[in-house]
Structures are given as C-alpha cells and as structure tokens.
Amino acid sequence: MDNLNSYLILSAVLFSIGTIGVLTRKNAIVVFMCIELMLNAVNLTFVAFSRHLGNLDGQIFVFFIMTVAAAEAAVGLAMFIAFFNNRESIDIDDANIMKW
Amino acid sequence: MDISSVFFALVAIVAVVSALLVVTCKNPINSALALVLTFFCLATFYAMLNAPFMAAIQIIVYAGAIMVLVIFTIMLLNIRVDENKKHSHQLALGSVIGIIVLMMTGLVLTRGKVSQPVGDITNELINSQGHTELIGKVMFTDFLLPFEVTSILLLVAIVGAVILAKRKLS
C-alpha cells in the first residue's frame, strides 16, 4: 500500500513536469518529447496499479499505449519534417496560418 | 528503511532530475538524452514491480526505437539552439497549470482509497510461470481483437509517415 503510494506520487510529479514542458517550450520536438514523458508517467501508474490489484489488464494497456506512442512518433516526426520543409523552422509559434 | 526503498528513492531522484532536464535544456539533443535516462529509470521501476516484460519493451521500444527516431530527426533538421525569446508570461502560466495538475493529483491521492487486490496474479505465480507467458496468455485470449486492430494502426502509421515526409515532386 505504502509502496503503491510512492509510485503514484512519483508518477504525478513526472506528469506535472511533462505538462509544464508542453505548455512552456517552443520547440515542437521538445514538446513532443514532453508528451512522451507524460505518457510514460501514466504507464508507470498503470503498471503499479496492475501489480497492486493482481490483474494483468493494466500491463496490456501499457503495451497498447506504447504501440500508439510508436505510431504517433512516426507520424508526428514526419509532420515536423514536412513543416520544416515549408517554414524552415519547427517553432510552434510559426504554425499560425489557422490562427483566428 | 530497507534497501529497496533506498534504491527506489535513488532512482526516483534520478528520474525527476532527468525529467526536469528534458524540460529545461536549451539544446534538443540534450533533452532527448535526458529523456532516454528517464526511460531507463522507468524500466528500473518496472523491474522493481516484478514486471520484467514491461521493462524490456520499455527499453527496446522507447529508449531503442522511438528515441532513435527523435534524435535522427533532430540531427536531420539540424535545428539551432533555441534563442532566449521573451515569453515569461507563458512560462508563468504553464508553471501555474503544472502545479495545479500536481495539486489535483495530490488531492486524489490523499482523499482516494485504493481497493484491495482483486485478481489472482501474485509474485509467486509470476516467478513460477514467467511474466511474458502470463502477458501472452491474456493478450491472445481476452485482448485478441485490440491486438489485431493495433496492427492496422501501425500499418496506417507507416503509410502516413511515408506520404507526409516524402518530397513534393514538382
């Protein structure tokens, strides 16, 4: 029980650090890496709860989250390359054509 | 304080410090390397939680495949180091939102009550049958359909990445 709480606290701290990174950084690749950090914090929660509850479903979810993250990495980095070819920059402030 | 909680505290400190480095480093390559360190710390936690298959795919998929792709993209685009642009209000707002998220999770952790174990997966079962075998048994019975849908997702991602990143023929 105490063990589970320490994992959950650590996971919450990592998730908050990732949130701050997503909201404050300007480089799109660093923002992407902070999203990966948030995904990993959630994965740690899933595995800790799965082990605590004695049920493997949470770890299967972690497997699927990793698959989605891999697909997201492939498509996201391809989008960054396309964006860089158009704008010569990957600053997220330069993605402002659709800004109202 | 036994040896495992001392080890937990050490790895947790490394994980948090490297996560902070991901957010604060000016050079994206340094951020990526700090993120690899965070992934290794998380793999250590999975091993400590007696989930060795998760630790293995954490290192192979995240630290191995995804971060190599990210570092490759950073080097391909040859991004210069961020200049110090003035956006202090955004920094303040982002930090406030991050701290609010932390306080909300803290509230849930202190007010919430975790249920007692409901399943029958114990440390003895994992040690006798093997973690990978147990995961495989669940994945190919209860989660067979999601597993197959995942393959379609990966196929779409491959095609999408090729189409998005190819050079326009003009």
Could you describe the 3D structure shown?
- The complex is a heterodimer of chains A (100) and B (170).
- Chain A has 100 residues and is mainly alpha-helical.
- Chain A contains three helices and no strands.
- Chain A has helices at 2-24, 28-53, 57-87.
- In chain A, helix 1 packs antiparallel against helix 2 and helix 2 packs antiparallel against helix 3 (57-87).
- Chain A has a single domain, classed as Orthogonal Bundle (Helix Hairpins).
- Chain B has one domain (3-82, 122-165): Four Helix Bundle (Hemerythrin (Met), subunit A) (Up-down Bundle).
- Chain B has seven helices and no strands.
- Chains A and B meet through helix 1, helix 2 and helix 3 of A and helix 1, helix 2, helix 3, helix 4 and helix 6 of B.
Gap between N and C termini of chain A: 50 Å
Mean pLDDT of chain A: 90
Helix content of chain A: over 70%
Structural class of chain B: mainly alpha
User: How many structural units, i.e. domains of chain B?
Assistant: 1
Based on CA atoms alone, the radius of gyration of chain B comes out at: 21 Å
Secondary structure: number of strands of chain B: 0
User: Would you give the CATH topology of chain A?
Assistant: Helix Hairpins
Order of helices and strands of chain B: HHHHHHH
Looking at the overall shape, the CATH architecture of chain A is Orthogonal Bundle
Query: What proportion strand of chain A?
Result: under 5%
Q: How many structural domains in the coordinates of chain A?
A: 1
**Largest sheet geometry of chain B:** none
Helical residue percent of chain B?
Answer: over 70%
